[in-house]
Specification:
The protein is α+β, with helices and mostly antiparallel strands. Helices cover 25% and strands 45% of the residues. It contains 4 helices and 7 strands, in the order E-H-H-E-E-E-E-E-E-H-H.
Length: 146
Amino acid sequence: MRIKISTQVNQSPKQVLAGFDLDLFNALKPPLMPLKVLRFDGCETGDEVHLDVGFGMKWFAKIVDHGEEDGSYFFVDEGFVLPFPLKSWRHRHGIAKSESGSMVIDDIEFTSGFVLLDVLLYPFLYTQFFWRKHIYTSCFGQHQIT
């Protein structure tokens, strides 16, 4: 399954990329989720993020790629220890330049290994990432529609 959510903000891609730090990561925690950051190396290839998601479950991901092209940036994390029922996770974080700032793009591919379970997980995961929109606009400035 795939989830793709974009958020327009008014800072440059370089400013937004610089803001992807531990403080932002903690701010992005979904409400009512007992998430605890155990390790946060950063957003470059080879960096790792380790989470305790509660109930004895861990979520470990590694940044497998990052880069810049024409003033836009990205980094990709892949889960290598995932909480039940996830079997695979790939999250491409894009920061694309736009006329009035940047577009922050969460592009996620996941599977539990069972299509029906993926369909049931989709609204829960979508909501968790849709929640990020207001965090991004709070941290990086909301796009003003003219």
